[in-house]
Amino acid sequence: MADVKICGISDADMVKVAAEAGADWVGFVLVPQSPRNVLGSTASRFELVIDLLLAAATNNVRSVVLVSDPEPAILRGVGGTVMPDVFQLHGKESPEFVANFRASLPSSVEVWKAVGVSSREDLEEAARLYRSADRLLIDAKPPEGADRTGGHGAAFDWSILQDWAPATPWLLAGGLTPHNVAGAIKATGAPAVDVSSGVERQRGIKDADLVRAFIAAAKSQDYEGSHEQAKHMGTMARREGPLRRIWRALRR
Ligand SMILES: O=C(O)c1ccccc1NCC(=O)[C@H](O)[C@H](O)COP(=O)(O)O
Q: Where do the TM regions start and end (predicted)?
């Protein structure tokens, strides 16, 4: 069963929704250009980040702080408050930066490196360069001229992943939705998946039913349907509770 990360959450209620639906990680974006940014611009810039990290801890779901070519002050600021379970580096961080950052943290905190790919060569290069990362997040390349590196709802050609077996654990990201995630897991063998746009009702605003539907589909791996069916599935997943969901999945 694939692990699931719901990325770009910006309020504590949605942390709870994702945790109750069975998410393995919740991600918080600290990138000012992002519509999901949770980093404030004033002296209390970490206030919301701290609230979200505490909400994740309270709801027993692992937290991922996402940064992109971060200023040292941001890393020091987060690390000096409530330590997340994971730092996800989603910019042009060099292999040396990743290795040094990894070495500076306790082993209980993971460092993930996100890479945009469009070819087999990109995948192989990422696996070779970023051996020190605890996980690779394999995403689509950002569109030409984009002001941020992720969260665009764009997929890449999954066929490049065929028989790819890197030494480093990895997650599949980019353009995943409740409708395509089960197929994506089947097609690629991804051990974990990540989503942001595909569970939003409008850019930057998460939809609780789509979050539930995505997690249910990723965990059962056999769901395909329309947007409305997906939302309905999310509602049913919420009503049924985890045992009933498992029972239904086993009966299929
Ligand atoms: O989500 C953002 O706005 C974002 C901004 C800057 C750097 C990375 C960002 N997101 C990274 C993620 O982990 C997304 O979940 C990943 O790119 C997949 O996004 P999507 O295709 O929208 O599901």
A: none
